Amino acid sequence: MNHHKHLTITERESIMVLSYQGVSISETARSPGKARSAMSRELRYNTTDNVCSAHHAQKTYEERRKKCGAHKKPGNPELKKLVKSKFLDQQWSPQPISERMKLEGSEWKISYNTIYRGIYAGEFNEPEVTVVPSESFVTEEKAVTLNMTKNGGEE
Predict the structure, then answer these.
(1) Is the pTM of this model over 0.70?
(2) Could you say which residues of the chain have pLDDT below 50?
(3) What is the C-alpha separation between 76 and 155, in angstroms, rounded?
(4) CA-angle at 39, arms to 37 and 43, nearest 5°
(5) How far apart, in whole angstroms, are the C-alpha atoms of residue 137 and residue 98?
(6) Triad 11, 65, 19: Cα angle to 5°
(7) 3-state percent helix, strand, coil for the chain, nearest multiple of 5
């Protein structure tokens, strides 16, 4: 379970004010009760040209937050066909498929994690074919078994 709590806009403003006042990172961390590393990271990520902006930091955080999380499985039919061909027909694993596409400068980019998600979701499974045997298609072994049951267990 993750007990990490993200910084709020109020905490960011407090960090920026204390930073402008020249307060050390250790002292700044005590104020909102966060780790020194969190304060250091906040200032490093959100300081441009020696200027800290809580508003800019919050906006950047929200943009980053939108990008995180599980990505979609391969949705493009052509990309799906290419990955399926490499995976099923040529027996490639997801990492070489992803890396080869990058190396060849493919118009599509797909991570090996996304390929794995597609595999686990059954995206690359072959459609199941149901075969119903007809009476005309009886093997010799089945014919013997059928004759035995029709004749009361004897041939």
Answers:
(1) no
(2) 1-2, 143, 146, 155
(3) 59
(4) 115
(5) 45
(6) 30
(7) 55, 5, 45
